[in-house]
Design goal:
It contains four helices and ten strands; from the N terminus they run βαββαββαββββαβ. It is of the alpha+beta class and about 220 residues long.
């Protein structure tokens, strides 16, 4: 048994409003309550050894979150999911635990689903227009960076995207760049706002569904 492990967990329901920093603190308390004390770094400011693959934005659901950690003592990965889930708040459920084989840096593509809700727009017409918009060769938006605001073409970061009409809404499925560059699903809405302002949704919901490497092999 190894004391360096990875868990895959989901964050749904009311848990989507837990921030990244609060999630890190929640995880540390859950491990302690479940009887799996985390290992700590050495030095003047020791901290729990754990790291998230891709910090999740507040308000976004996910069924494919990954976290690496080191336990103080070796443990059987098979017993971790049930015991950790029992120690978690509502909406956070550990799906599996295993020894990691690849680094988070190898994550390249992210499968997301989304829902664009409209009070007045015709979903069928909106889906057609959105499909045409994201078929363009370039989609330049204004996005914030560490140096301020700047324009960026997000189209190369969208590998696949499709839209389907529903009752009062348009649903989407997309494969977007997870990192290098990172594309936040809200950037898709920013493109709609810039190019089709009349189709700005009244409400949006996004969810992470799966992670892939650069060869579109499932990452876990």
């Amino acid at each position: 048994m190894n004391n360096k492990l990875r868990i895959r967990f989901e964050k749904t329901g009311r848990a989507v409003y837990v921030s990244h920093l609060d999630l890190m603190r929640t995880m540390q308390r859950a491990f302690l309550r479940a009887g799996f004390p985390l290992a700590y770094s050495e030095g003047f400011n020791p901290h729990a050894i754990l790291s998230m693959a891709l910090p999740l934005s507040v308000g976004m659901e996910s069924v494919c979150e990954l976290m690496d950690f080191r336990l103080r003592d070796p443990a059987d990965p098979a017993v971790l999911p049930e015991r950790l889930t029992a120690a978690m708040p509502e909406g956070i459920r550990v799906l599996e635990a295993y020894e990691p084989e690849r680094k988070f840096a190898q994550i390249k593509w992210l499968h997301i689903s989304g829902r664009l809700e409209y009070d007045r727009a015709d979903p069928a017409g909106a889906a057609r227009q959105l499909t045409a918009l994201f078929s363009q060769e370039a989609l330049v938006i204004v996005r914030k960076t560490k140096r301020g605001e700047g324009e960026a073409d997000i189209r190369p970061a969208v590998r696949e995207i499709s839209f389907a009409p529903g009752e009062g809404q348009v649903t989407l499925q997309a494969l977007i760049s997870a990192q290098n560059p990172t594309l936040n699903p809200t950037h898709l809405v920013s493109a709609v706002e810039r190019y089709l302002p009349e189709l700005m949704p009244d409400f949006t919901v996004f969810r992470r569904e799966a992670l892939f490497d650069e060869n579109m092999q499932a990452f876990r």
